[in-house]
């Protein structure tokens, strides 16, 4: 009977994955608040106003939310047949998200389409207006300007909008406002052009080396070039992570404020009386309500850990597929691992990166704590490495680059990962890799010590002791040693410190157990990197990552040191960091998860039965509940886009209910 149930769950899981591209498939209706619930929610929103933020429930507050911008845009286009100004705001929001060299071209395009005089049709002599566009992204928001404009300034800047004969662009703007913007854009373009000319006039490093004719001089040239590349990459990663650019973020700020103010005066009152505003409030109320286990439908067990299971699940209202990590409170208490559970939850909530499995929701019940995470259906790199023996160079570089950026994302938030290994690197359906299982991640402190993770991937400083026999402290550099182990394993198919060579090395030194032999090799052995498997750059990279000295180890000063290494010379880092690089390998569609019969169940022995969760235990989880606003907005907007495209309300899949999913 259990085998039949497993087969049914497997079939449901495979079918759910196969139909993801067809659009959301909800099984629950969105809960609609009562008038009393909505009034209490509005009061709470107003009482928790951020002193530096926009007025709650006002237009700025609304447009800084992805759902709010989507609903206001839909109202203008569907009920008011007015799209030019909101499309301009949407284009500026898209532009602000852009990073790198394409930002200038997009800025010039916005100016050309919306702020320059309109083109004239040669035949009819009519003005040609931009086409209406729709929001198709799940994360488009307007960044609220830090400054404001007075009524007098607005009248001066937008006075021409009333008389179209004085303004030839589609927003009705003219005068000093536009001239200032055009001038700033020209200055930026000139600066970038000068920078490009300077860069292109420099000799290539290899040419300089050839011409030098002196070994020492050649070495100095290469070292200088390496430092230049490191500095350049450091500037690039900082700019891409922080949104910095040669083009200032406030380029369109004044125009943005004027346009929003004009829309507020003309349409905001009507929006507040519309069905779109009602739906917006209902969605935002639903976001703030407590998440409970019944919001999700489980499909199949994917794996089991120390405290609970990982289960494929579906969010009832949106039909979105996720992985649900369920950890039993009694098992956590028995192993005295409350802090480990909290570390995992907090580190996941702190880090939102395309290179780390992201937390969508966290909540708890009487017996369990829950983490809702990205569902990664492509299997782990340990599985694929076992299948292939070793990875081709393109895959090695791609996986290494993304894993490195995932580690750096954790380090940037003050965390050290401590559990990097191929089994903790998961592939998505499209082949993108992310690091997962942050159970051992912890804050970096001056007193951090103790081995954690998997033996053979530990850094030497995790094993060292001082003269008194106490463990030595360590920092984020331990992750780069583990990273070096993984890179070597990707290239050769074997971890240098979990190999037969490492085992024999330890045994020859008198270590009588496998564990002691591996630890000794980690501390004392310098691995060989045979030319048959490692090209010179790859061997050099691995040696520098596996440096026993954490202070001179590659990556000790940040991931840019690793990015600048010659082994990565052919990678386009801007595309990697922006998550635009196409994965070199797409995993097969079959289920890369262990058979449920092999996963097993937990033993509920006498100790487990006698363990009681009391009030003090519950206090540990008082701040556990959390909803990722970006994940929730993505669910809602995917749902709304589907309704917009089909022109029909999206109904739940038949579950003995006739409730409609539309939030009215």
Automatic annotation (TrEMBL):
Residues of the RGS domain: 58-115
Pfam families per UniProt: Pkinase (PF00069)
Residue ranges of every copy of the Protein kinase domain listed in the record: 296-568
AGC-kinase C-terminal domain segment(s): 569-636
Residue positions binding ATP: 325
SMART domains the UniProt entry points to: RGS (SM00315), S_TKc (SM00220)
InterPro entries membership: AGC-kinase_C (IPR000961), Prot_kinase_dom (IPR000719), Protein_kinase_ATP_BS (IPR017441), RGS (IPR016137), Ser/Thr_kinase_AS (IPR008271)
Keywords from the named record: ATP-binding, Kinase, Nucleotide-binding, Serine/threonine-protein kinase, Transferase
A GO MF term: protein serine/threonine kinase activity
Protein name: Serine/threonine protein kinase
Organism of provenance: Nitzschia inconspicua
Organism taxonomic ancestry: Eukaryota, Sar, Stramenopiles, Ochrophyta, Bacillariophyta
């Amino acid at each position: 009977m259990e085998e039949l149930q497993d087969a049914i769950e497997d079939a449901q899981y495979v079918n759910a994955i196969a139909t993801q591209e067809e659009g959301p498939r909800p099984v629950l209706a969105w809960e609609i608040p009562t008038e009393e619930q909505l009034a209490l929610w509005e009061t709470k929103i107003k009482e928790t106003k951020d002193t530096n933020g926009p007025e709650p429930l006002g237009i700025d507050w609304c447009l800084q939310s992805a759902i709010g911008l989507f609903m206001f845009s839909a109202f203008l286009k569907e009920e008011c047949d007015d799209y030019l100004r909101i499309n301009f705001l949407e284009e500026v929001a898209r532009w602000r998200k852009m990073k790198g060299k394409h930002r200038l071209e997009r800025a010039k395009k916005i100016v050309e389409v919306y702020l320059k005089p309109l083109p004239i049709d040669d035949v009819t002599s009519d003005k040609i207006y931009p086409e209406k566009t729709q929001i198709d992204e799940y994360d488009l928001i307007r960044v609220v300007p830090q400054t404001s404009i007075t009524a007098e300034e607005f009248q001066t800047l937008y006075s021409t909008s009333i008389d179209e004969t004085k303004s030839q662009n589609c927003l009705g703007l003219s005068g000093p406002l536009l001239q200032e913007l055009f001038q700033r854009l020209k200055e930026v373009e000139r600066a970038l052009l000068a920078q490009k000319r300077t860069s292109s006039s420099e000799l290539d490093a290899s040419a300089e080396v050839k011409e030098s004719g002196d070994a020492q001089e050649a070495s100095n040239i290469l070292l200088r070039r390496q430092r230049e590349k490191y500095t350049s990459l450091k500037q690039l990663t900082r700019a891409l992570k922080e949104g910095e650019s040669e083009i200032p973020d406030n380029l369109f700020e004044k125009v943005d404020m004027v346009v929003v103010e004009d829309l507020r005066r003309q349409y905001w009152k009507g929006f507040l009386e519309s069905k779109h505003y009602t739906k917006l409030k209902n969605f935002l109320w639903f976001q703030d309500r407590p998440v409970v286990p019944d919001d999700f439908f489980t499909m199949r067990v994917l794996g089991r850990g120390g405290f609970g299971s990982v289960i494929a699940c579906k969010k009832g209202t949106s039909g979105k597929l996720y992985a649900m990590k369920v950890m039993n409170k009694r098992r956590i208490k028995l192993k005295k691992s409350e802090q480990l559970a909290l570390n995992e939850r907090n580190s996941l909530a702190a880090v939102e990166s395309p290179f780390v499995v992201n937390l969508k929701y966290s909540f708890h019940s009487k017996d369990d704590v829950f983490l809702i995470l990205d569902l990664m259906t492509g299997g782990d790199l340990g599985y694929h490495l076992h299948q292939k023996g070793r990875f081709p160079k393109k895959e090695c570089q791609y996986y290494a680059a993304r894993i490195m950026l995932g580690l750096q994302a954790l380090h940037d938030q003050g965390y050290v990962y401590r559990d990097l290994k191929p089994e903790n690197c998961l592939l998505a359906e499209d082949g993108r890799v992310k690091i997962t299982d942050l159970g051992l991640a912890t804050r970096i402190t001056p007193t951090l010590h103790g081995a954690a993770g998997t033996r053979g991937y530990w850094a030497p400083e995790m094993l060292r002791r001082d003269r008194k026999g106490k463990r030595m402290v360590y920092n984020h550099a331990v992750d780069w040693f583990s990273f070096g182990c993984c890179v070597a394993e990707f290239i050769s198919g074997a971890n240098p410190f979990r190999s037969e060579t490492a085992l024999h090395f330890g045994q020859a030194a008198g270590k009588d157990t496998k564990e002691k032999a591996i630890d000794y090799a980690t501390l004392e052995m310098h691995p060989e990197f045979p030319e048959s498997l490692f090209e010179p750059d790859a061997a050099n990279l691995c040696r520098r990552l596996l440096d026993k000295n954490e202070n001179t180890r590659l990556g000790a000063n940040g991931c840019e040191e690793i990015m600048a290494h010659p082994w990565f010379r052919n990678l386009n880092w801007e595309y990697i960091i922006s998550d635009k690089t196409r994965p070199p390998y797409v995993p097969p569609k079959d289920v890369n998860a262990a058979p449920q019969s092999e996963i097993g169940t937990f033993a509920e022995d006498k100790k487990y039965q006698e363990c009681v969760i009391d009030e003090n235990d519950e206090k540990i989880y008082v701040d556990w509940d959390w909803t990722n606003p970006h994940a929730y907005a993505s669910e809602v907007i995917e749902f709304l886009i589907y309704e917009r495209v089909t022109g029909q309300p999206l109904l739940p899949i038949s579950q003995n209910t006739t409730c409609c999913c539309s939030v009215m």
